[in-house]
TrEMBL record:
Belongs to the peptidase S41A family. It comes from Thalassolituus maritimus. PANTHER family: CARBOXYL-TERMINAL-PROCESSING PEPTIDASE 3, CHLOROPLASTIC, TAIL-SPECIFIC PROTEASE. The lineage of its organism: Bacteria, Pseudomonadati, Pseudomonadota, Gammaproteobacteria, Oceanospirillales. It comes from the Bacteria. InterPro entries: ClpP/crotonase-like_dom_sf, PDZ, PDZ_sf, Peptidase_S41A, Tail-specific_protease, Tail_Prtase_C, TSP_N. Keywords: Hydrolase, Protease, Serine protease, Signal. Pfam families: DUF3340, PDZ, Peptidase_S41, TSP_NTD. Residues 611-640 have a biased composition (Basic and acidic residues). Residues 611-687 are annotated as: Disordered. This is Carboxy terminal-processing peptidase. Residues 668-682 have a biased composition (Acidic residues). Residues 246-316 form the PDZ domain. NCBIfam families: prc.
């Protein structure tokens, strides 16, 4: 995602693995279990930085908050949740002790006093050290006593669990967690001696890293608890993370192209960069957790419990080199780990640029041709434009060329495919909209003081006035939502697919004495006055999707700013599409009632939802193996049901590349791959074309694409 040219950031980037140069991992001295954690002390620079951050937040954030006891209480709760969301480290006595700070963190923040924050952080690090020391000792002394034929369970969802009142309670919890880790490795086919070696090394490495913590770690953790009380996209970057962020925003993309964040002790994939190596490889998905990293054929390095920047350092590497990742699927908590390989490469502008194709759809005895323009991101070559290069690339320039080429190819209608387009240049979203509407407002930006800036398309030319559909999904965000929302508000075309992400806030970067602050300072609003924030764009016709809205999207983020409305930018005239939607939906539902791909998505989603609802796992090996076999059989049955209905050969198992590519390319609106010439047609795209043809027939029998 890019800057808009007005220094406003449309999107949030955690860390994009798109950098060159593997950084050597410094050797960390081994810490003996039971070693007390050495408390960290805040620095003078952090006190100054804190006052700068609070001044920016209180005066410049979109949500005007006051520094008072209410905010202090919220910061404390957020900090404890960030540190120990699973209630697995702190004791109830710790939590009771921290209550002394509940109504006083506001005073400390105003003074730049970090002592309360460091007090809590130091206690947390001591508790981590104690827990890791416990499991290391268990592995050394009691590993032989772990039995996997008893009836015992582990609760995975502990967000609402009461805090342990005794160390013995935590010991029992961590004994079960250790047993579960051992069982997972057993199910993955590892020998007991290898399991002991791997886990001993994993926990020892984590213990070593705890004792290598620096003041900046404590400070960044606390300040991001403060910023998160304002909204999830306001963020403090330490000097180290500022450097990463700045390189990311300049799009110096060389690596695997993935956005990562820390979730508990794991590194989780947030999204993939369009056109990047991971996206093209098709073997890494949002919500996947990276638990191991290896360079080429070297040994896998276990990264559970590592800091995010350390994991990034391992995954970074030069172009054409290979990185292997051990991942856990985000679908099911008890998923078996698998290893994937990705060849690092640059993310070239050409591979992120708009592409066209023509799909043919049978319309009675006639074959209709629908043009499709796939836009992975909203891009512009700022440097080329500044240098007045005649052939500089941009989304609007490329789409203009592609539309003209498709019209020359005599297409009957046009689909703009924005699935998984996470946004980019605001300017390009406005200019692209201008290709399809006469001059007028496209988006409104409301600032923290209530001032509203209406951003307009000022070019009266309409490049394409024919039948139009915009295809979106849950990963369509920011600039994509602006374009889709404008098309919908003007009644210019149908919006089809899944409810979009809901990223409707604007961020800016502000320098600090130590690092940078990314702060939310404005919100986007549609022509109609509706915000794109939180709710996103709701399609005219919804497609089933495997995306879980409880886990992906703005509404899944804690303290996300709410959806609201302001005055419309223009009177929205009667929408010719609205009167036809009821009939269009009827035709669509009738068509997909026996469509194997749509049936597959619905049934697959129901199966995944059922698996996710299980918050307890058995620690009995026979039961776990039976459960895993049953899940595999059910998934295989769903896939073979789809294949039989389409006249395709059935699979003996899902444990092969053919099955993987089939699952990824079929039945899911989030997948768009070009792995082979024999790839099955995109069912969602074909149905979008059918809906467009329905609309054309209902509007005018002779309706067709036109300039």
């Amino acid at each position: 995602m890019k800057q808009t040219g007005t220094r406003l950031l449309i999107s949030v980037v955690t860390i994009i693995l798109a950098l060159a140069g593997v950084q050597a991992q410094a050797s960390i001295p081994e810490i003996k279990p039971g070693t007390p954690f050495t408390p960290l002390e805040p620095t003078r620079e952090e006190a100054i930085t804190t006052q700068q951050i609070m001044s920016n937040l209180l005066r410049g954030h979109y949500e005007r908050k006051r520094l008072n006891n209410a905010l202090s209480s919220e910061v404390l709760d957020t900090l404890l949740d960030d540190l120990d969301s699973t209630h697995s480290y702190f004791l109830a006595s710790d939590i009771k002790e921290f209550e002394q700070f509940r109504n006083h963190l506001d005073e400390a923040l105003s003074r730049g006093d970090m002592k309360p924050a460091f007090y809590i952080y130091n206690r947390f690090q001591q508790r981590i050290s104690e827990r890791l020391s416990f499991v290391i000792t268990e592995l050394e002394n009691n590993a032989a006593e772990f039995k996997f034929d008893t009836q015992e369970t582990l609760e995975l969802d502990r967000e609402e669990a009461p805090w342990a009142t005794t160390t013995a309670e935590l010991d029992n919890l961590w004994r079960k967690r250790l047993k579960n880790s051992m069982l997972n490795l057993r199910l993955a086919g590892k020998e007991d001696k290898d399991i002991l070696e791997l886990l001993s090394k994993r926990y020892q490495n984590q213990l070593n890293r705890v004792h290598q913590s620096r003041p900046v770690d404590a400070y960044q953790t606390f300040m991001n608890a403060v910023t998160r009380t304002f909204d999830p996209h306001t963020q403090y970057f330490s000097p180290r993370n500022s450097e990463n962020f700045n390189i990311n925003m300049s799009l110096s993309l060389q690596g695997i192209g993935a956005v990562l964040q820390t979730e508990d002790e794991h590194t989780k994939v947030v999204r993939l960069v369009p056109g990047g190596p991971a996206s093209k490889a098709g073997n890494l998905e949002p919500e996947d957790k990276i638990i191991g990293v290896a360079q080429g054929d070297e040994d896998m390095v276990d990264v559970i419990g590592w800091r995010l920047d350390e994991v990034v350092d391992l995954i970074r590497g030069p172009k054409s080199s290979t990185v292997r990742l051990e991942i856990l699927s985000g679908e099911v908590a008890t998923a078996e780990p698998k290893t994937i390989s990705i060849v690092r490469d640059e993310v070239k502008l050409e591979e992120q640029s708009a592409q066209k194709e023509v799909i043919e759809i049978q319309d009675g005895k006639e074959t209709r041709r629908i043009g499709v323009i796939d836009i992975p991101t909203f891009y512009i070559d700022f440097e080329g434009r500044m240098n007045n290069l005649p052939d500089y690339r941009s989304t609007t320039r490329d789409v203009r060329r592609l539309v003209n080429e498709l019209l020359d190819e005599k297409v009957d209608g046009l689909i703009i495919d924005l699935r998984s387009n996470g946004g980019g240049s605001l300017e390009e979203a406005i200019n692209l909209t201008g290709l399809f509407i006469p001059t007028g407002p496209v988006v409104q930006v409301r600032g923290a003081r209530g001032d509203v800036d209406v951003l307009r398309d000022r070019d009266p030319e309409v490049l394409y006035a024919g039948p139009l559909t915009v295809l979106v999904n849950r990963l369509s965000a920011s600039a994509s939502e602006i374009f889709a929302g404008a098309v919908q508000d003007y009644g210019r075309g149908l919006v089809i697919g899944g409810q979009t992400f809901g990223k409707g806030t604007v961020q800016s970067l502000r320098p600090l004495t130590e690092g940078q602050l990314k702060i939310t300072q404005a919100k986007f609003y549609r022509v109609s006055g509706d915000s794109t924030q939180n709710q996103g764009v709701i399609p005219d016709i919804m497609f089933p999707s495997l995306f879980d809205k409880e886990k992906i999207g703005e509404s899944a983020l804690e303290r996300a700013l709410p959806w609201d409305t302001i005055k419309p930018a223009r009177e929205v005239s009667s929408n010719p599409i609205r009167s036809k939607l009821s009939r269009l939906k009827e035709l669509h539902e009738a068509r997909i009632s026996d469509n194997p791909d749509f049936i597959f998505v619905r049934e697959q989603k129901a199966l995944v939802s059922e698996m996710r609802e299980k918050t307890q796992v058995s620690l009995n090996e026979a039961e776990r193996r039976a459960e895993r076999e049953e899940n595999d059989e059910r998934r295989l049955a769903l896939e073979n049901k789809r294949r039989k209905a389409k006249g395709l050969p059935v699979l003996a198992s899902l444990d092969n590349d053919e099955a993987d590519s089939t699952e990824k390319s079929e039945g899911a609106d989030e997948e768009k791959t070009d792995d082979s010439e024999e790839e099955e047609p995109d069912a969602m795209l074909i149905e979008a074309g059918n809906i467009l043809l329905d609309y054309m027939r209902m509007s005018s029998p002779g309706m067709t694409a036109q300039r």
